[in-house]
Amino acid sequence: MKLPTPYDGVLLIDKAAGMTSHDVVAIVRNRLQTQKVGHCGTLDPFATGLLLIVVGRGTKIQDLLMSEDKEYVGTIRLGEVTDTQDRDGEIVETNPVADFTHAQIEAAFAKYHGDFYQTPPMVSAIKKDGVPLYKLARAGKVVEREPRLVHVYAHEIQTVHLPEIGFRVICSKGFYVRTYAHDLGQELGCGAHLSSLRRTKSGRFTVHGAVTVEELKTNPRESIVARIISLPDISRMRGA
User: What's the whole-model pTM score?
Assistant: First the structure.
């Protein structure tokens, strides 16, 4: 039996809502008939947008690609705190939402700009004594988490239709947008959670023109292979 031709590089996927990042990896493995597939930066199941899939020798630059800055657009819902800090969690607190002015909202966002420390959420893949936090959270346990230094390079308040605020943020590696929404709600005094999220950019790569999950499932394998960005092209894009 002839072995499949190895594919080396990065495939840009526009992840759909309702699936995990690992689900996308599994589909790529199946379509390309290769096990050497990984992803660069988890997107929560409810989130959509850019997911970098590394294939073949592309897995060797996985950590490098994961370390780059990200851009997201999303929606914060004020007045409701959830146990996961996003819409998939259980509501644990509700509060009235004041008629905030744009200036008050901007002042809250300004508090989380530049360098600051962010405490990772319990529902995350960070490990405590070798156990992922999300497994502890499922068991009803809450443990101390070490705050992490993160950076917001730019933010934009795009819409205000209280109790919802639409925003855009450009941030560093390791940034939790769910926690960003939660902390902004605390700053405004009414609590909040992340109700929608879409990753639009990672490093030099954008979601524009990325392969949709439907295309990934139904298009001929040759057309998927043709969308893989080669390692030399990635090196040129990054100025290496």
Answer: 0.90
Assess whether the previous peptide bond of 220 is cis (omega < 30° from 0): no
Q: Tokens 């509060």, residue? A: 95
- Provide the residue count of the chain: 240
Burial of 116 (0-12, 13-18, 19+ CB in 10 A): middle
Domains of the chain (ranges plus CATH)? 9-67+205-237 (3.30.2350.10), 70-201 (3.30.2350.10)
Q: CA 183 to CA 168: how far, in whole Å?
A: 16
Q: Is 44 one of the catalytic residues? A: yes
pLDDT tens digits along 55-102: 999 999 999 999 999 999 999 999 999 999 999 999 999 999 999 999
* pLDDT tens digits, 178-208: 999 999 999 999 999 999 999 999 999 999 9
Instruction: Single out the catalytic residue among 44, 83, 86, 183.
Output: 44
Say if CB 120 and CB 145 are below 8 A apart.
yes
Rounded to an integer, what distance in angstroms lies between the CA atom of residue 140 and that of residue 129? 17
